[in-house]
Amino acid sequence: MAQLLSGKVAAITGGATGIGRAIALEYLRQGASVAINHFGDEKSVSHFKCMQEEAGEDAKLIAVPGDISEKETANNLVQETVQAFGKLDVFVSNAGICQFAEFLDLEKDLFDTTLHTNLSGAFYSTQSAARQMVKQGTGGSIIGISSISALVGGAYQTHYTPTKAGILSLMQSCACALGKYQIRCNALLPGTIKTQLNEKDLANEEKRKYMEGRIPLGRTGVPNDLAGPAVFLASDLSSYVTGAQLLVDGGLFVNLQ
């Protein structure tokens, strides 16, 4: 079976765990060379080493540590990707944080950290990736990992949902701005996915059953559920798709009541 991303080079933020990790490993399986960004702490380094073991010693995989909320980290990720693999064809803005909090008690530090990591990080890294793609002159694909939360409210996510709506809007505007360079920009909107961001929340048996009961496919998602859609948007199969939003939620959004 032909590899859908053979010869392509991808960079992914927040790629050591969760959705980013699943996408990175599938990109490797589909023939891509992959650079991931992670925070650079001991836990992230450990997660990356596990990724390397799973990918195999022949995998074209590198890590570029750093805080993605800082513009310099975004620039370093793109520069080191090109240095290692010669170009950049696909960029996935995935890094994000989500800590539930009461709106009336929400502290400035949590709001600022969420905003800078989720939205500023997405903006700076997307901009840096786009500049490289324009320089190359061969087009490219940029994918923003938004969320079903961009379309609905969340009582404990008043600081989080605006950032995910921002990523969706960023991809739409970038599709307009970058189309003339043949750079496609699309958003993936995961529903309830079992990752480190919500494992404590889903550990509540009653809440988990409630969530599953609202999802037409009858289960919460796993990170690998995003890998296929991310391959589609990165590959030539989606060569006329830009400015789109793809829900990957098991049908949750259309069943919200």
TrEMBL record:
A GO term for molecular function: oxidoreductase activity, acting on the CH-OH group of donors, NAD or NADP as acceptor
Protein keywords: NADP, Oxidoreductase, Rhamnose metabolism
One Pfam family this sequence matches: adh_short_C2
SUPFAM superfamilies on file: NAD(P)-binding Rossmann-fold domains
Superkingdom: Eukaryota
Oxidoreductase recorded as keyword: yes
Family: Belongs to the short-chain dehydrogenases/reductases (SDR) family.
The name this protein goes by in its record: NAD(P)-binding protein
Native source species: Patellaria atrata CBS 101060
Lineage: Eukaryota, Fungi, Dikarya, Ascomycota, Pezizomycotina
